[in-house]
Write a structure and sequence with these properties.
The protein is 36% helix and 15% strand. The chain is built from five helices and nine strands.
């Protein structure tokens, strides 16, 4: 076995798909799924994140950690179509959930990883966080928060490499997945590009399987394509 696997955000569609796929593969044991709905952690409460990490530590060193959390919309609050719609509270919440929360997870979960073997720490990011790939504009808060997350990932990769050259820390773009997060934005998705959560999970795990230490700090799409910063 390669140690335990921890999925933070197991209550979401992709997170649940990852737990199911990893359970079927039986490569990691145990498979630990943490969800906000179950009261396992709160992305805006560092103490709860620290407590969750302490609980996971009892299961031994993990070989895989995936942070599958994220916020795109909430009720009437949606990604901005223009700068005129920018709201400071909504922007701050995007950063709190999409950047600061995952960074705090890394702060408390990174020390659980062993230093004498290949380990993977992955975060669900998004192609819209790529500065070079941005040709449409809009979605200011979400884009900026994911761009910031990508920088956090890069920083973590540099830090992890100092103690374990085989460690992999990456961002993952799952594509458009048929979940509550993407539901309001599925109308214009190309045929064959709306993935069910189970398929999305398998695609992401396949990508992770192919990555090496030299890939750490980068962001990859569901098909293995590297996404430009």
């Amino acid at each position: 076995m390669a140690g335990s696997a921890i999925i933070v955000g197991a209550g979401g569609g992709i997170g649940a798909g990852l737990v199911a796929a990893l359970t079927e593969e039986a490569r990691y044991a145990p498979i630990i799924g943490l969800s906000r709905a179950a009261g396992d952690f709160d992305l805006t409460d560092e103490a709860s994140i620290a407590a969750a990490a302490l609980s996971c530590a009892r299961h031994g060193p993990p070989g895989l950690i995936i942070v599958a959390t994220g916020l795109l919309h909430d009720g009437d609050l949606r990604p901005e179509r223009s700068i005129r719609e920018l709201d400071p509270d909504w922007m701050a919440r995007n950063y709190a959930i999409n950047t600061i929360g995952p960074a705090l997870i890394a702060k408390h979960f990174l020390p659980l990883l062993p230093r004498d073997q290949r380990t993977v720490f992955a975060f669900l990011s998004a192609r819209v966080g790529s500065i070079g790939d941005n040709h449409l504009g809009g979605w200011h808060s979400y884009r900026a928060a994911k761009t910031a997350l990508n920088m956090v990932i890069r920083n973590l990769a540099i830090e992890m490499r100092r103690t374990n050259p085989r460690a992999v820390c990456v961002g993952l773009h799952p594509g458009t997945v048929d979940t509550a997060l993407s539901a309001p934005f599925q109308a214009n998705v190309s045929p064959g590009k709306l993935f069910d959560p189970e398929r999305a999970a398998l695609q992401l795990l396949d990508v992770l399987d192919e990555l090496k230490g030299a890939d750490s700090g980068k962001c990859f799409a569901w098909d293995g394509e590297e996404i430009t910063p």
